[in-house]
Write a structure and sequence with these properties.
This protein has twelve helices and twelve strands. It has 423 residues and is an alpha/beta fold. The strands form three sheets. The chain has an eight-stranded mixed sheet. A two-stranded antiparallel ribbon has the order 2-3. A two-stranded antiparallel sheet has the order 9-10. Helix 4 packs parallel to helix 11 and helix 8 packs antiparallel against helix 9. The N terminus is likely disordered.
C-alpha cells in the first residue's frame, strides 16, 4: 500500500536524482503530519561547551584502527540504536533504556573548524559570520506573538542576529528576576526607588490604555505597525511581571536545576525555546578519558532528570511536555580519534548530536565516520549513509526548522532537511 510518507520519499528521491532542490512542501511534508508542528512544537537546547569526545558514548569505533577506544568500554544497544557502555557511566545505560526509542543519535556532523568560537557559531547557525540568528532564535521568532519571551537562554551560547526581540537571557546572577520584580533598582550605585505596587498597577494600566489608543488612532500603515508593536510589548510586559508570583528564572549550574525552570517556561506558555548548558568544560587536551567519563555520566544523569521533569509536566496540547518538546543535545566540536602524548585529545571538526522527542524518528543512529574518521555523506530522504549530502550543522538546523514547519530556505542554503529523521 502506498502511504503519504512513501509517496513523499519517492517524489523527493526523484527530484534529488535530477539535481533539483526539494520544494519546501515536500521537505516539510513528513513533519506536517504531526499536528504539533504547526507552530506548537517546543524545543530545548542542551549545549556542552569545549568539544566532547563522541567515541566515549555515541560513536562505535571498535573496528576502526584509527580510533583509540576507551578501556573497559563495550558495545551496547537498545533496539536498533547502538551506543558505548562503560561501568563508570550507568546513567548512559539508564537513559537509552528509558528514552532510546525517542532518541536519534547523529554522528559525523561537520562543523568546518577547530576553533571553539567559530565551531560554536557554526553548530548553532550554520554560518561563521556571527550575524545570522541561531536555530532557537529562528524557531522562537516564528511564533513570537504567542509567547512572552519566545527564547529564554538559561545558560549557554546565543546568537540572536536580527531576531533579538525574541530572545532574553535569564542571567547567571538572577538578573531577569531582578528586572521583573524591580529589585534591580537596589543594585544601582545611585539611590533609586520604585513605585509601590498599587502605584505600579495604575501606571501599567495607564501605559496600556495609551498604547491601545495610539494603535486605534494610527493614520498610516507604518504608524499602525509601530503602535501595535508598542501595545503588544506593554501587554507582554504586564504578563511577564505577573509571573513573579508564579515562577522564578534563577538557575544553578546543573542541568537538573535548569530543567525545572525550563519546564515551567514551556508549560506556562512563556517560551517556545530554552537553552541550557552543562557548566563544566569538555576541552580535554590532556587526560581525556579520566576527564570525559564523569562529564558524560553527569550529562546523562542530567538528561534523565530533564526527561523525567518533561514526562511529569502537563503539556499545552499533548498530555505531557515530553510529548511536545524536542530536546537537542550537542557540542561545538569533537575530539581527535587518537590520544596525544598527554593522554588527551585535541580538536576535531566532526562531532555528534542527539535529538529526543516527538517528530523525531528515534531508536537509531544517523550518519557515521569512515576509516579516516571523516563524516559519511547521508541521503536526506532516507537518513541512511551512502548519499551525497554532507551531514553538516546546516543540515541539522534545516531538519529542526522543517520539524517546526518552517521553510529552511531563507535561513540555510545548499542543504535539504534530513526527512528520514522526521516522523
Amino acid at each position: 500500500m502506498t502511504t503519504r510518507r512513501t509517496l513523499l520519499k519517492a517524489t523527493g528521491a526523484g527530484l534529488l536524482a535530477f539535481g533539483a532542490p526539494l520544494p519546501f512542501g515536500l521537505r516539510s511534508g513528513l513533519a506536517s503530519a504531526n499536528p504539533l508542528t504547526d507552530g506548537k512544537l517546543k524545543f530545548l537546547f542542551v549545549f556542552n561547551s569545549g568539544g566532547w569526545d563522541p567515541t566515549r558514548v555515541l560513536v562505535d569505533g571498535f573496528d576502526n584502527a584509527a580510533i583509540d577506544m576507551e578501556p573497559e568500554a563495550g558495545r551496547a544497544s537498545v533496539g536498533d540504536l547502538n551506543y558505548i557502555s562503560h561501568p563508570d557511566r550507568p546513567s548512559v545505560d539508564g537513559f537509552f533504556e528509558a528514552w532510546g526509542d525517542r532518541t536519534a543519535v547523529c554522528n559525523g556532523m561537520l562543523v568546518r573548524s577547530i576553533a571553539h568560537e567559530i565551531c560554536t557559531v557554526l553548530a548553532l547557525t550554520g554560518d561563521s559570520s556571527g550575524t545570522r540568528p541561531d536555530w532557537p532564535a529562528i524557531l522562537a521568532n516564528e511564533v513570537r506573538e504567542d509567547f512572552i519571551i519566545p527564547h529564554v537562554v538559561l545558560d549557554g551560547p546565543s546568537f540572536p542576529g536580527d531576531l533579538g526581540v525574541a530572545v532574553a537571557r535569564a542571567g547567571g546572577q538572577g538578573q531577569l528576576d531582578a528586572l521583573i520584580d524591580g529589585s534591580a533598582l537596589d543594585l544601582s550605585t545611585m539611590a533609586a526607588g520604585g513605585p509601590s505596587h498599587p502605584a505600579e498597577g495604575i501606571m501599567d494600566a495607564y501605559m496600556l490604555r495609551r498604547a491601545q489608543a495610539a494603535a486605534g488612532g494610527a493614520t498610516s500603515a507604518a504608524q499602525a505597525k509601530l503602535a501595535g508593536d508598542l501595545s503588544h510589548a506593554v501587554e507582554q510586559t504586564r504578563a511577564l511581571k505577573d509571573l513573579r508570583y508564579v515562577m522564578d528564572f534563577s538557575v544553578g549550574s546543573t542541568l537538573a536545576s535548569q530543567a525545572q525552570v525550563a519546564a515551567d517556561l514551556l508549560s506556562l506558555g512563556v517560551a517556545r525555546c530554552a537553552t541550557l548548558r552543562q557548566a563544566a568544560s569538555w576541552d580535554t587536551h590532556a587526560d581525556n578519558d579520566n576527564l570525559q567519563s564523569p562529564l558524560w555520566e553527569s550529562l546523562f544523569d542530567g538528561l534523565n532528570q530533564l526527561m523525567s521533569v518533561l514526562q511529569t509536566t502537563p503539556g499545552e496540547l499533548a498530555p505531557t511536555l515530553a510529548d511536545e518538546t524536542v530536546v537537542v543535545v550537542l557540542s561545538e566540536m569533537g575530539r581527535t580519534p587518537q590520544l596525544n602524548g598527554f593522554e588527551g585529545k585535541d580538536h576535531w571538526p566532526y562531532t555528534s548530536a542527539m535529538l529526543i522527542g516527538p517528530s523525531v524518528q528515534g531508536g537509531r543512529v544517523y550518519g557515521g565516520l569512515d576509516s579516516q574518521v571523516y563524516g559519511l555523506p547521508i541521503d536526506p530522504i532516507s537518513g541512511d549513509t551512502g548519499g551525497e549530502q554532507l551531514f553538516s550543522a546546516e543540515a541539522l538546523g534545516a531538519t529542526l526548522l522543517a520539524m517546526a514547519d518552517i521553510d529552511p530556505g531563507p535561513f540555510v542554503q545548499g542543504v535539504s532537511p534530513i526527512m528520514g529523521m522526521m516522523k
